[in-house]
Amino acid sequence: MRKTKAEDNVITFIIENQENFYRLAFSYVKNAQDALDVVQESIEKAIRKKDSIKDNQSVKSWFYRIVVNTSLDFLRKNKKIALVDDDTLDYFRSGKQDTYEDIDLQRSLEQLPITYKSIIILRFFEDLKLDEVADVLNENTNTIKTRLYRALKLLRVEMNEMQ
């Protein structure tokens, strides 16, 4: 079976951005193996649905949407609480470094509802533009702006309470 141009574009995009997709999946599922499973399942879905891409410019938001939805599906199916994965636990057990630069931010982010958390992750950790975030989450850009403002406000309140 011969690969199509759409399939070549999808595969090239995935290979070039694989670390970003793993990081995004991990931010949802909080486990290294589960994140790899989510990315693998997302790639399979993308290859099966490659013909639904309308133009090359939408590949980015199209695939991010697949990863986000696959991560959320995984969480719904498993409904388990994954506090940390083994690597993270070993890191904190080792006590080699006493720097806690982002731990408050990470804890505060975990307290946000998933709709707000998704926007923060996509906008600031994945560096997507607001239009791209809206496309990934299948929402209006103005809705994303409003939710981002609300999420940042909640994050600020949460971080202030931790101090």
Give keywords:
163 residues, mainly alpha, Rna Polymerase Sigma Factor, Chain: A, Arc Repressor Mutant, subunit A, RNA polymerase sigma factor SigV, sigma factor, sigma factor activity, transcription, RNA_pol_sigma_r2
Give a written overview of the molecule.
- Residues 29-56 form a coiled coil.
- InterPro entries: RNA_pol_sigma-70-like, RNA_pol_sigma-70_dom, RNA_pol_sigma70_r2, RNA_pol_sigma70_r4_t2, RNA_pol_sigma_r2, RNA_pol_sigma_r3/r4-like, WH-like_DNA-bd_sf.
- This is RNA polymerase sigma factor SigV.
- One of its GO terms (molecular function) is DNA binding.
- There is one protein chain.
- With 163 residues, the protein is mainly alpha-helical.
- The protein folds into two domains: 1-97, Rna Polymerase Sigma Factor, Chain: A, CATH 1.10.1740; 99-163, Arc Repressor Mutant, subunit A.
- The chain is built from nine helices and no strands.
- The protein has helices spanning 5-16, 18-29, 32-48, 59-78, 86-94, 103-111, 114-125, 130-136, 141-162.
- The longest helix has 22 residues, at 141-162.
- It is globular.
- Mean pLDDT is 80; it is low at 95-100.
Note the topology.
Blueprint: H1 5-16, H2 18-29, H3 32-48, H4 59-78, H5 86-94, H6 103-111, H7 114-125, H8 130-136, H9 141-162
**Oligomer category:** single chain
Mean pLDDT: 80
Q: What is the radius of gyration? A: 17 Å
CATH architecture descriptor name of the largest domain: Orthogonal Bundle
How many DSSP H or I helices? 9
CATH class category label of the largest domain: Mainly Alpha
Name the poorly predicted regions. 95-100
By DSSP, the count of extended strands is 0
β-strand percent reads under 5%
Q: Could you say which overall geometry the principal axes of the C-alpha atoms support?
A: globular
What is the makeup of the main sheet? none
CATH superfamily of the largest domain: RNA polymerase sigma factor, region 2, helix turn helix motif
Distance linking N and C termini: 59 Å
Order of helices and strands: HHHHHHHHH
Domain unit count: 2
- The helix-and-strand class reads mainly alpha
CATH topology of the largest domain: Rna Polymerase Sigma Factor, Chain: A
Helix content: over 70%
